[in-house]
Design goal:
CATH superfamily of the largest domain: Alanine racemase
Shape: globular
Number of domains: 2
Number of helices: 15
Strand content: 15-25%
Bound molecules: pyridoxal-5'-phosphate
CATH architecture of the largest domain: Alpha-Beta Barrel
Length: 466
């Protein structure tokens, strides 16, 4: 009878996959034997596998450049890394090996870029796209960067006030400052409101440019930006929004010859299921084909394309490993496996937006499986995980006497630390897990490095004023 955990996976998915395979009942992630890692470092454990960051950036560049060739698109492609998806120094160091540009979200991001410059990791000719709602410190930092010779820093206006404040701050620029405008996208019909709070209304953009920016010698409007928060997806909603934005681009281009760039934001998804069928190549090609088509009809040159992929870039580099501490049968149907940490604190998206990740056991693949609920250590009744993205249930091997069961959540490299308040106060004072970095050496062998120990009670008590 086929009742082993491996059989379940084998029957449900195309398995093994690029990054996952098993050997003697144990899981390998990018050819790394995770049981060895657990024996060395224990759990709970966060992992960052650096080579995946570079390979994703190269993949994005390749896909868009192939799409440019296939659609005979007349503009070029610029990849930007959106720092908010993971600000860690080791992530930026890896990403910057790939000749990239950067996108920022707040004042401190600019300090982060200055720090990277001090370390010789970035040049002043990089594009720095400054998004977000900008308070004075953010605008001041942008102006400082610009005055320091970063002439490709591009503040993207979220609203008119940012423009007025920046205009007052910027004195006699050597060359006009390149700027952008963000379009407030319409939300999906099922959302709680119609229009995003981020950016300017479609119908105000051309008049804002004509009335304010056009005659101002300090600025040169180069970029139009939009971000569809549900991501780049093959849905009528996405194509409709894209088409509206490209039409605004064409309207604006008519009155603003300097305009030459369209920033389509982030939103390339990270793989969150072994059953994922997202066709990245097709989507890149179709996005460019649609833009080209509209521009051709409107007799406007095709814009330079910028993207700001966060999840796609870093998501798949991350994994979070836990031990199962115990099994609790709470009624005839509900069997809980208790993990040695908390979902709320270590993977806040599972709790906040019901995000599903790829969840797999690390060992015992050759044992029988059962349906379980995973429970976290905090007292919060919401600290649980009970469904995959492809099924409304999760299954794991039965617990064995000889060795604890270890499980991994994969592709958890984006946003979780910044949302969880890395190194800060955690719910029920559950400590932030140990974090290691994995890289490949010249021989292609994996090497590990401890980035951070498990958070100590001292560090937390100190924050609390003890
Ligand atoms: C303006 C902007 N650009 C890029 C991103 C990155 O999105 P993703 O991680 O889905 O690629 C976001 C995410 O919130 C965003 O708001």
């Amino acid at each position: 009878m086929k009742n082993k955990y491996y059989d379940l996976v084998d029957q449900t998915f195309d398995f093994p996959q690029d990054e996952f395979r098993t050997e003697e009942g144990e899981l390998y992630f990018h050819d790394i034997p995770l049981m060895e890692i657990i024996k060395q470092y224990g759990t709970p454990l966060k992992i960052t596998y650096l080579p995946k960051i570079s390979s994703q950036i190269q993949r994005a560049k390749r896909m868009f450049n192939v799409a440019i060739a296939k659609t005979d698109y007349q503009g070029t492609y610029n990849y930007c890394y959106c720092t908010k998806s993971s600000h860690f120094s080791f992530v930026l160091e890896e990403a910057l090996k790939n000749d990239i540009n950067l996108e920022t979200s707040s004042a401190f991001d600019i300090n982060l870029i200055q720090e990277l410059y001090e370390q010789g990791l970035v040049d002043k000719d990089k594009f720095v796209l400054c998004n977000g709602y900008k308070r004075i410190p953010y605008l001041e930092n942008i102006v400082n960067l610009y005055n320091d010779g970063w002439h490709n820093v591009i503040p993207i206006f979220d609203n008119n006030n940012e423009y007025y404040t920046l205009d007052k701050m910027l004195e006699n620029p050597e060359v006009p400052m390149k700027v952008g405008i963000r379009i407030a996208a319409e939300e999906e019909p099922k959302f709680d409101f119609y229009t995003s709070r981020l950016g300017m209304r479609y119908r105000d953009i051309v008049s804002f440019y004509e009335d304010q920016v056009k005659s101002n010698r300090k600025f040169q409007l180069k970029m139009l930006h939009f971000f569809i928060n549900t991501g780049i997806r093959d849905t009528a909603y996405y194509w409709n929004e894209l088409s509206k934005c490209v039409n605004v681009y064409c309207d604006l281009k008519r009155v603003c010859p300097d305009l030459d760039s369209l920033n389509i934001g982030g939103g390339f998804p990270c793989k969150t299921s072994l059953a994922s069928t997202y066709d990245y190549e097709y989507m890149a090609e179709e996005v460019l084909a649609q833009i080209k088509n509209i521009c051709t009809n409107r007799e406007v040159p095709e814009p330079i394309i910028f993207t700001e992929f966060g999840s796609f870039t870093v998501g798949e580099s991350g994994a979070t490993l836990y031990s199962i501490l115990d099994e609790k049968q709470q009624n005839d149907r509900e069997r809980w496996y208790m993990i040695d940490s908390s979902f709320i604190t270590t993977l806040p998206d599972t709790w906040g937006i019901n995000q599903r990740f790829i969840m797999l056991p690390i060992n015992h693949w050759d044992c029988e499986y059962q349906r379980v609920f995973l429970g976290g250590l905090t007292c919060d009744s919401e600290d649980y995980y009970n469904a995959d993205s492809h099924a409304n249930a999760i299954f794991l091997p039965k617990l064995q006497k000889d060795e604890p069961l270890y499980i991994g959540f994969f592709h958890t490299g984006a946003y979780q630390e910044s949302l969880g308040g890395y190194g800060g106060i955690q719910h029920c004072l559950i400590p932030a897990p140990k974090h290691i970095i994995i890289d490949k050496d010249e021989e292609g062998e994996y090497v590990t490095k401890l980035f951070a120990k498990e958070q100590s009670h001292k560090s937390m008590l100190k924050i609390l004023g003890y």
